Amino acid sequence: MAKETTKIILCGCCGKMGSAVTKTVEARENIQIAAGVDIKECMTLPYPVFASFDEVVCKADVIVDFSNPGTLPGLLDYAENNHMPAVLCATGYTQEQIALIEKASEKTAIFRSGNMSLGINLISELAKAAAKVLGETFDVEIVEAHHNQKLDAPSGTAIMLENAVEEGLNYKPEIVYDRHSVSQKRDKKEIGIHSIRGGTIVGEHEIIFAGNDEIVKISHTALSKNVFASGAVDAAIYMCGKETGLFDMNDVIKNK
Asked: pLDDT tens digits, residue range 125-147?
């Protein structure tokens, strides 16, 4: 029996990631974009585009959001009122917005990940395992690089990787962002996070475990935005039919 087609509402459809998701969906079977939401005008898309969720009249199964944190309240209201799962791919949420997401997950299913790449989520698990072995005697630093148009720093992925490392440690580390503001020795229980912005770098992340006379590095490089689009589409298919709760990419990986 053929699988039913998953229909998505793509928020941020006129942006670069929206374009990547549109192309990814076009190349797949059993999934389609029913509508887009974006404040920008884009006349060339093969589906209707609305300026806000208040205007959406198309039926769909799941929301995929690649816009920005500012759209979150309207998106969550729409998801709750329509009992529709949402895949949140934006980064840079405040603690207040994260609280809104957690509250919304009590009424509808919410998927949230700091990075939609399967590879990044794999190295997140590797970083956790490495921290359990090396965390007592090795210093940990995280370096991330992105294109010059990225707004948030550090990246959501860098924060996700730091959280993974922290899970593997038996102590609570102090997070230090860059080191220009102080002139002092590095504390043993620090985790440094450093951001680079320039050119068209899609995304590079490296976790450095620096010990005495040896260095262990875990790294990931995204060569195109397609890896994030593909992960988002996988997540949308996985979330279809889910009713309540918080989900992330680990749930998708376990389902493969």
From this structure: 999 999 999 988 999 999 999 99
Query: Which residues belong to the active site?
Result: 146, 150
3-state secondary structure 134-190: HCCCCEEEEEEEECCCCCCCCCHHHHHHHHHHHHHCCCCCEEEECCCCCCCCCCCCE
Amino acid identity, position 13: C
SS3 at position 6: strand
Q: What are phi and psi of 242, to 5 degrees?
A: -70, 145
Reading the block at residue 250, the tokens are: 């680990």
Residues 6 or more apart in contact with residue 30 via CB below 8 angstroms: 2, 3, 4, 5, 6, 237
Q: Look at the chain and count its residues.
A: 256
Q: Please identify which residue in the block is written with the tokens 């929206």.
A: 18
pTM (two decimals): 0.80
- 3 pLDDT band (50/70/90 cuts)? low
First to last CA, the chain: 20
Give all strands of the β-sheet with 203-210 in edge-to-edge order: 174-177, 190-197, 139-146, 203-210, 215-222
Q: What pLDDT, on the 0 to 100 scale, is given for residue 174?
A: 93
The two three-digit tokens of residue 101, written as one number = 């997401």
**What is the distance between the alpha carbons of residues 128 and 136, in angstroms, rounded to a whole number?**
13
Asked if residue 255 has pLDDT above 90, the reply is no
Round to whole Å and give the CA distance between 146 and 152: 10
